[in-house]
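Re: that chain you flagged

S.,

Sorry for the slow reply, it's been a week of failed gels. I finally had a moment to sit down with the sequence you sent. For the record, here it is as I used it:
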Amino acid sequence: MVEDLLKAALDAARGTGVRYAEVRLYSDYRHEYLAIKNGQTEVLTSRDDRGLGVRVLRPKGWGFGATSVLTREAVREAALRADRMARSAEATGSEIPWTEEAHLPHQGHYASSVREDPFEVPLEEKVALLSDAVRGLQVGPAVKVGRAELSAWKEEKHFLSSEGASYVSQITHVGAGMVAMALEGGEMQLRSYPTSFGGDFAQGGFEHIRSWDLPGHAAETGHTAVALVTAPVAPSGVMNLVLASDQLALQVHESVGHATELDRVLGYEAGYAGTSFVRTQDRGSLRYGSPRMTIVADATVPGALGTFGWDDEGTPAQRVEIVKEGIHTGFLSSRETAARINLPRSGGAMRGEGPLRTPLIRMTNVNLLPGDHSPQELIQEAKKGIYLETNVSWSIDDKRLNFQFGCEVGRVIENGELGPLVRNPLYSGMTPVFWNSLRATSNPSTWHVWGIPNCGKGQPGQAMHVGHGAPMGLFENVRVGGGTL
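Prediction finished late last night. Pasting the structure tokens below so you have them in one place:
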């Protein structure tokens, strides 16, 4: 059945003059989300979709068609619609470059390593786990809201292209987290675990959710939220800054990941999501950061959210160097954008959210490689400054140049030691200036790949699952402030 539909769609798409065509069929596309707030079920959603998308390339135009009706007639019509769109685009288009790919999959297969299928775990057990976490957050009357949540996704994708590429991909993602909101005397503070915005996310099964042990960390999370209410406001000024792994991962996402997406650099996203301060001619010459900064986009990291077998053009997952010892060296690219700047091959970063959206250049796992300092050595080397952990707010301009981030937790650093909590810490900067102030990163013992399941891009919008590996980092002479977040 699946093979027949793939072939029917591809045959219909391969009309006279078509240079390339691809078909993605999702035979299984599920999402479940559960949230418990103050002992009550706040949200329970379950989604189950199927569908097929077809993309067609003519010499001067792209076309895309999709359908959620999996019949031969419907998939053929989707393919013909994609071809009609490509023909229309040719009227105003110019020649579209295209890189060849020598390592296309033929009957390839990729599957997540899953020990415990999250969709087979009884709902009652999930509710009980989150309820235990919420009860643990309630450490006193100042905690007004305790909330815990978990998510699971499963997709089975079948891919076929006019170049003979074919593969089946079976991917499962999970995530979980919790937050305590404390309120007293008109001051409100949040504390999250294992990080904010829904928690941490990984590729695999329910075993990951168990490993985060939300109930076991709930009391500490609640107590920190309460302590932050009466903590002094973070100091302001230019000072040394140590960022925890989770906050540094978001910094990588916003100021490096998006900035080096080649479609943004070429102006394709200018109408909606912005552009980039990075230029195509900067590759190999732009001093992006200090020599301690090496960043790679790696779609092969085991268990990470941005890991897969092949992208949605049939390009194999790979490790692409983005910044080497502070020098900008590469981009997140597709087969078209790579050809536009004469790269030998695509970086394998073309992915679409489900069957009904056309693929776009998306981050994979964009990782800042660790250094050789222990966490204690970073704090000692900072001498005097501030340590920040867990994002609560962010702002960055359309060129990914000027930014400001707020964090849940701050601690003053005095005489090379961590001091007391401070609340509402902010830091700001300009991307290359900030990264050039990087003086040291911690060793692999603190390096973690954080999963982000809601990276937004495109019009109409798409949410993609991406990952970011990061250690702790020490930055010198950063502008820091404290106030209302």
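What I noticed first: The longest strand covers residues 40-58.

Talk soon,
D.
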